[in-house]
Fold this protein.
Amino acid sequence: MERPGEQHAAADGAPEGAPDADSRPVAVTLRRGRPLAPMQRALWMSQRRHPDAPVQNMALLSHLDTTGGEPIDAERLADAFAEVVRASDALRTTIVEEQGTALVQLLTDPPRTSIVEVARADAEAWATERAHRPIDTTVCSYDSVVLVHEDATVSWYLALHHTITDATSSAMVFAATATAYAGGEVQLDSYYDWASTLGRAAGARAERAARFWRERPAAPGVGRLYRTVRTPTPTATRVPLPVDDELFAAARARLAGDYTMVSDDLAWTTLLVTVAAVHLHRVARVDAFAIGVPVHNRSDARSRALIGPLMEVFPVDVTVEPGDTFRSLHRRIGRSLMQTLRHAVAGTAPAADVEAVVNVIPRAGLGSFGTVPATTRWIHSGATDASHLVRLQLTAYGDHERELLLDINAAAADPEHVARAGEHAVAVLRAVLDDPDRPIGDRSLATADELAEIVAWETADDLDGPTPGVVDQLGSLLPRLDTTVLEDLDLALSGRELWRRVARLAHWLREQGVHRGARVGVELPRSADAVLAILGVLVAGGSYVPLDPAQPAARRARLAERAGCRLVLDRLPDLSDGAAGADAAAGADAAAGADAAAGADGAAGADGAAGADAAGAADDPEPLPLPAPGDEAYLLFTSGSTGEPKGVPISHLGLARYLRFAVECSPTARPPVVPLFSALTFDLTVTSLFVPLITGGRMVVVREDGPAGLARVARRTDLTWCKATPSHLEILERLLPPDHRLETLVVGGEAFGAGLARRLLARRPGLRIFNEYGPTEAVVGCMIHEVDPDDLPAVEVPIGVPAPGVTLRVVDEHLQRVPLGSPGELLIAHVGLTAGYLDSDGPFVELDGLRFYRSGDLVRLADPRTLVYLGRIDEQVKVGGIRLEPTEVEDALATHPAIERAAVRLWSPTPAAADHHCVRCGLPSNVPGVHFDDEGVCDTCRLYERIAPIVSSWFRTPQDLIALRNESRERRSGPYDCLALLSGGKDSTYALHRLVDMGFEVYALTLDNGFLSDQAKANIRRTIEHLGIDHEFATTEAMNAIFRDSLERYSNVCNGCFKTIYTVATNR
């Protein structure tokens, strides 16, 4: 409790010990106030950005141990501190703002130290709670409280705002108070007098320093630690690093040898900047940045005796180079630090461009209060400069052992990261000390517990038992099925008929020289013929290569040539009854290929035959060998980042294992009915091609592309299973009718937003949605996540966990496992992985005896343990020096309630300079697509010459319109001259205004088709109110049905809107 007669706590939640409203200290204004010193300005701006946070609180708790001696007199201690305050203009500082300018005003009657009774055991908790209260510098810039304990000892809590002190100054305040307590005289120089000399008499060194910092390029931004900073915050957590005596001894030994510098503090600073640089590089994936180092600026006798903030943070530029060892990086950082110190002149610190700070805090001055032993603790305020992601601080008071502290900004790490960050930093420190010549990336930062959890998660249990090859499965199942398995327009094929046709085609292909592993181009549009061609090639033992017939002929020919196609099927041969090879069934009683061991994954079943039960389909058919597991099943060309398509061969083993995973991980109660509507050249389509056929289901070929194809999918209400991209689903979600029987939806090919998942579930309650991920090289899909309707994430649906037998690893650029939750590149390994690209090695790497594909995708292992897709590494962009993931910007935008979806891309136009212009209109030659004739006239002007006479015949003058209105008024039966359609855009709004200006009585109508934005509706309402006319928002419950019909008929929704507007308008 507080003693009677002492300073009481302020009302309304102000810090205890601060002056209350009726007894505020009187401030005297000096020329309206002094300007802030350069050091104060940077600190004040940091505080000003977050005025309600204790960003600049510097709080110390010192226990004065008088056990066995004369106890400290709390009143006398309060008097002693008051004497120091009166002697120091810095301590009497208040900061006020006038017209946006911060000014210093000095207190004439500063607040007195409070005295309270607090149990000694509770003192640190009391001080921590107190330090979390921001100091109100408009009233007073310090908070001083003496805590009287039950054992007659006291602790002194002293919180000074950083704008009036620094670490050295705080120790000087402590020492000066001890002097005053002992009866000594306290004489202090004026801080503001010293600060006023800065810049007025700048010498050559100061001028050189100022020029150096002006000319120094700004450091690249970081923008992330364990996660990208979306909303800066001053909230921070302090993590004491688990550094024992042995590790400190190892550090001292290295500082005396490999890492020696000219002074102890400089050696520690260089070592810790190196540790912070490696930590930042490994966790945030950055190679160039700046780390701030506080410089005390106390280079002469006067400045060394000043109480006040002299410290400034100067940047040390860091560059991490390929192949760096700890020694080479330490040496480079040492040179950069020395360059910083050479130009670190008081008052010249550049604008802050650092997001990490390393601080070696002075040791002297706080170990004793005069002759009384003192134990001093630095009390963390729970806040930091919002621009600082991390601070690494070495601190010790008096003779106590050094302590390493890590302050982590809450915006840059979640609680799981914070809990482990200290161990990650210590792992770096140990590595730096263990072997200076070790490469900086040769070990993981993850803790032993993290590594154990990560390794256990990485590999899923393999599939149980053997996996038959796809040809084996088809030959065993299809000949038994008399039900329809393939629909295309009016064609409906049973399983038996489909297999019969496939067998004939397979034999014909054999006759054309298609042998085991031979590639056959399939240059057919999406159709039953294309399905037959693909299956026929597989049964013949070949590898199918889909070629898009819509692509230019030269491109198709180039791809077929690169693939070495034995032949290209652009139509199927006539294999009707009586033709060569008729009724030749493939696979009946067929022996396995030479390399297909019975029972092996992807090979024949136990009896070594495919389609044994289909023997009756032909008279003693010639058997065709089953493909071996390692034989190539197909070759897909993917669009590479270089623009040259990459050929990706996939084996029968890889295809069979993927399809088994696809069927078992998204099971259905009955054989699925599946639309085939995506491009055959897209690996996502592989799922829709085979899943219905190997499960006894039915495939429905959708020939239309784009929205028209999706409209057909929506109209086929008997479809139960579908695989599609999120781009497909954005349209399909609007078109699905209420009676559609879709049960299972597998999503792939793109990032899947949680908002779209919510809309799909709202449209089809009970729908099972699976998000499947996998690059072409990993055979369509290698992980999966089932969407939980009750636990949807805020932004992106996770991509899941490893598929059976798949190993996934998340690594940094050094191929080391990243800590849990940290971003890294996804590596994929499994036995069906592509063997390599058609004519290049590809991004594969051997690690721990496994061959991994480097996906180039950035992911993180979230909690619960599922992978979250963050974007492409090669799509990272730098904006203002900060490395950004476009998907993370999209996610941040999508969290805004007014934004449903977002797409982010970096576009840097570099137009060529125009070398001439159109002689008529002046159009420059660098406009894309423009051409000029021999007379220098552009094709746009020539086009205008041709169409202007035609177009002008379609229009009349405003006077003609007025005459038409006057004539029609004689016949009108209602109050209006015309109906005007108003969309809310500028064109229809302008037309409406012109009609009203011309004297028309207008009835305005707007079709609300479900896509009209709130902004457009607001514009419409404003316009109607301004013009004072009648208006109607018209709509119909049948809009979705109209859209489906319009897409089916015209491949667009515009015609449906026009029809609706006409119908609604003519019935008004």
Q: What stands out?
A: Residues 1-31, 578-620 have pLDDT under 50 and may be disordered.
